Batch of 2 targets.
Target 1
Amino acid sequence: MYRIIEGKVHGVLTDYDLASWTASLTRDYTKTSQQRTGTPPFMAHGLLDGTDALHLYRHDVESIFYIMLILATHYEIQAPKKGEDGGVRMRQGLKELPYQSWFDEPWYKGLANYKIVFFSKLVYPNLSPSFEDLRSWLLNLQESLACGFQAKGQHDLQQRMRRRRLLLEPDQAGDEVKPVAFDDETLGGYVTYSALVRSALHLTGTFKELVIRYPPASTRTAQAGA
C-alpha cells in the first residue's frame, strides 16, 4: 500500500513482523512453514511446485509482482462523487476477472503451471485504466522473471544432458560433465533488487512522485556523479 505525505507518494511494507532472517532458514523440506507461506495466488511458482527448497529473496520479488498484477487488473480507483467517498473497488464490466483461475485452482502444482505458462507466453496484462501508469513497471518485472525462468530451464536441461553423457560415455565425457555454476538466488542475475526497483524510478502520471528511499547502487552512483 502507499500513503501520500506532503504531496509525495510513500510505499509502506505491511506484515513485516512475519519476516525471517534468511540465516535462520533451513533446507529442511519438512518445515513447510518456513518456505511455503502466503496466499497461493501470490506465491512464487517454485515454492508452489516444490522445485525450490529454500525461500529466497527472488520469491518475494515474484510475489510483489503478482500483488501488483492482481491489483492493477482486478481493481479500479473511483473518484469521489457528491455524497459518496472515492476509493479502490472491484473492476466492473468484465465477464471474468483476469487470472481468476489462479484463485479457483485448488492444487499448488496446478497453480504453478498457470504461472509458468503466463511467463513462457509473456501474456500481456489487461490493466484497469486506473492503473495504466503501472504498465511499464509491470512489463519490465514480467520480462525479468521470464528471462530468469528461461535461463534456469536451459541450465537445468544442460545439467541433465551432462549427467546422461556421463552415464553413457564415462570415459569420453571429460570436462563436459562438470557442473556449471548458476546463480539460483537471482535466476542468473535477472531477478534482483535492482530489477524490482529500477523501473519504478521512471514511472509517470499518478506514480511519478513515488519516493524510492533505497535506489539501486548503480543509480546512486550515477546520481552522485551528476
Target 2
Amino acid sequence: MDGIGEDSDILFLLGTNRPEALEPALASRPGRVDQALLIPLPDGDCRRRLFNHYSRHVPLAFDDSQKFVDSTEGASAAFIRELIRKAVLTAAEEGEDVLLEESHFDRALGTLKSGGALIDKLLAFDGGPPLGETA
C-alpha cells in the first residue's frame, strides 16, 4: 500500500461468502494472503444459540424454538437474524403489543424463502434442504 512504512503494523481483514470469486492474484499467489480461515455455517446448537441471542429482547409466545432451528439448516447467522427481524415486523403490523407467535416466524420464513436465489446469496444460505424443510 502506498504511503505505509515498512515498519508499520497493519492488519487487513478480508471477508467473503464467495471465495471462488476472489481475484485470481489474491487466490493463487503465495504471500498475498497470509492466513485464510473458513467460518462454517452454524450447526443446530449454534443456530439455537443465535435464535436465543437475536430474540432475547422479544417476547415469545412459545417455549421451544426447535422447529425454527430445524427449518434453518444451511442458513447463516445473518439469515437467522433477518428471520427474527421480519417476524418482529410481522407481529408489529398486527397490533401495539409485539408477542411473537410461531405463525409470525412461519410467515417471515415464507417471505425469505420466496426471495429466491438473491436472498440466498445475500444471506448466505448454503444449499442443504430448502429452508423450512428438514432433511
